[in-house]
Amino acid sequence: MQVGETSRQRLAELLKELRGERSQRSFAKLLGVSNQAVQYWEKERTWPDDNNLERIAELKGWTLLQLQVYLEGEQQRSSVADEDVNRVNDGELQQQSRSVQQLLEEVRMLPFQAAVQVAKVALETMEMMAAKS
Question: Rounded to two decimals, what is the model's pTM?
Answer without folding.
Answer: 0.56
